[in-house]
Amino acid sequence: MPESLSGKRAAATKTRPDQRLTLAALRRRAASLEARNAALAEEVAARDAALAKLERQLRGEERLRLAQHHAGIGLWAWDIGSGEISWSPEYFALHGLDPGQVAPSRAAWIEAMAPEDRAAAEAAVEACLNHCDAEYRLEYRVRRPAQGERWLASRGRLVRGAGGEPQRLIGLTFDITDRKRAELAIAATNATLRQEVEEEARAREAAQARLFQTLKLEALGQLTGGVAHDFNNLLSVITNGVALLKRGIEPARRERLLDAMEKAAHRGADLTRRLLSFARRQALRPEPLDLRAWLEEMRELLARALRGDIAIEVEAAPDLWWARVDAAELELAVLNLGVNARDAMPRGGVLRLVAGNVELDALTDADRLGGAFTRIAVHDTGTGMAPEVLARAFEPFFSTKDVGQGTGLGLAQVYGFARQSGGTARVASRPGEGTTVTLLLPRAAPTLPAGVAAVPPAPRAAEEGAPLHLLLVEDDEAVAELTAEMLRHLGHTVTRVASGPAAIRALTEGLAVELVLTDVVMTGGQDGLELAKQLGRNHPGLPILLYSGYGGAPARVAAAGLPLLRKPYSLEELRRALVAARQSGG
Fold first, then answer.
1. From residue 147, how far is each of 90, 95, 181 by CA, in Å?
2. CATH number of 469-585
3. In 81-193, at which residue ranges do the beta strands (DSSP E only) sit?
4. Which architecture characterizes domain 287-444 according to CATH?
5. 286 three-class SS
6. EC class of this enzyme (predicted)?
7. pLDDT: is 230 or 510 the higher one?
8. Is the pTM for the entire model greater than 0.70?
9. Quick one: three-class SS letters along 58-71?
């Protein structure tokens, strides 16, 4: 029994081969199902995520569409290859178009805008297609029946293919009418303000012109009064002297009277020279001048001209430049300043001349001077000037001196000389602290060895020569009579005509002369300079001498290369000028 039971159990525990195959298949099947279930779960999760994303996109697009709708922004797209154009409902509305009646097209877009903007719109599109790598931008107007004229702005991008060819132009359009109206309002306001400013400027200029005219008339009146006063004094000496001479007086009194008349004439000539210098019409002869040597000479001249209780000090910079200036006129100007300083120091004092160099910038300088200048400062320790006097220091005929003590042309002459020389004059003064007048004169390159002053050499005495037959051209009877008498006194024969054309006729008709003496300023349509030029063409080699008292004549005559005798001139000056003209012309 025991053995049979154990045998049965052993037999029961044995598995048949077909049963083992079934279990393995079941396990594989279960694993496959589990894998498929996992893949299905992943697919379901992916679809859920995609659905959620799509839902979010739909919600975003809806919000964008709502925002676009409420903002009135129109979307547009143009497929360049197919020519298809799409517009959003807002785009139709912005242009006042009905989607049911108008199909999106380039022609419909152009038709919807204001005619005056169509050419610019077409040009903008073509420009973008040809070379648009940035944002497409355009502003134009549309006119809608219900709302009138509206301004629209378009912004877009050009999409290109792999080969760079244009494929699509997409963008948006929105209303900018309010902005444009604000810009137009601002522009109108600016135009109004600009007009008001211009009117105010014109009114101010007119007021300034009236003020300038008033000041000019005031200055002219002051100038005329001063000139009349001084010349009347001089004329009184001369006319009264002539009257006494005609009555006949003893020789001693006649000599004293003639001396007084001669001095009056010289004072008149000096006054005229000062006036021309003030007006900057006096001809200058600027030359390079060694200021260091000139200052030492000026020290000696001032020492002789001023009182002994005035000490004269001179200081020059070690590297002092040369100046380009008329040495004689500079001497007169500084001597004038020295005399003014003397009068301002009745109890004595110090007169200092300080010379140095200065570079000026025309952008910052008060007189708009630029470049290299020499500076000569003349300082005194006198009474100084009050501000109201200082403000008028350079005015002609303004003087604080007693009547008869000065003409009031001193500082005005100095200023005119400095300006005509290409520089300027400046004055600084305070009551009780003295006065400083500074001359700024253009720098010049040295032309002589250091220490040698560029002072013009004295004219060489010339031989008087043989008597001449001269043609005198002068339109003023009194001047012509006196000049002819002077020429006869020198031994010359004189033929006188009153105009340039008369001189031409006389020479053409055979008048033989050896020299022509002509005034520069004459009536009759032809002045002396024009006459000289014509004579040079028609009668080459004929010596010509011009004379004038007009301030503008020297520059014109010098430019023509002709000799000039300046009025007033002495008998000796006339003689030397005739000799020089004959030598240069013959």
1. 16, 11, 14
2. 3.40.50.2300
3. 85-87, 136-144, 148-160, 166-175
4. 2-Layer Sandwich (3.30)
5. coil
6. transferase
7. 510
8. no
9. HHHHHHHHHHHHHH
